[in-house]
Design brief:
This protein is 30% helix and 25% strand. By secondary structure, the chain is α+β, with helices and mostly antiparallel strands. The radius of gyration is 29 Å and the shape is globular.
């Protein structure tokens, strides 16, 4: 079942050198009708990116899932750096609308998941390559004191920093 929406997206606090990548990525995610770049007054690059469009969300994807997908796409296009992303989804067949903002907490959760995924991919890649014993890390054996049994403390015969009181 598809549902018809008005979608507005605002992106700011991003690296200005990633503006083109963010625009390209968002157009790849959704068929936006238009976008606008509001330049900052200091001439340092794009201050805010605005996207707008009316289209159907399909495949059973809900508004919150769609917003999360856009957050992740923008952060990835911003070289895995957090930036402000706001998604307004107005269900045109039945008002009112819902608004979602990608917080730093959402970004941190996404980065943790992404880091774990990358580590897993690297581990799988390493496991499928030719075995190299030089890459193995072997910890040296730890010395075991045979006088100490697990769960029992042994009182030293001459505690350090105390004089023998028998002399």
């Amino acid at each position: 079942m598809s549902r018809y929406y008005q979608i507005n997206v605002i992106v700011n606090e991003h690296d200005p050198s990633n503006t083109k990548a963010i625009i390209k990525r968002l157009y790849g995610e959704s068929p936006f009708d238009d976008h606008d770049i509001k330049e900052d007054g200091a001439g340092k690059g794009a201050d805010e990116l605005w996207f707008t469009g009316q289209f159907n969300l399909t495949g059973g994807e809900g508004e919150d899932e769609y917003a999360s997908r856009l957050f992740h796409a923008v952060w990835e296009a911003n070289n895995d750096e957090w930036c402000f992303v706001n998604v307004e989804a107005t269900y045109l067949e039945e008002l009112p609308y819902n608004e979602y903002t990608g917080s730093e907490w959402d970004y941190e959760r996404w980065m943790e998941k992404r880091t774990k995924q990358k580590h897993l991919e690297e581990t799988i890649k390493a496991a499928t390559t030719v075995w190299n014993p030089e890459l193995l890390e072997v910890a040296p054996p730890s010395p075991i004191d045979p006088t100490v049994l697990p769960g029992k403390a042994v009182k030293p015969t001459n505690p350090p920093n105390k004089k023998d009181e028998t002399t």
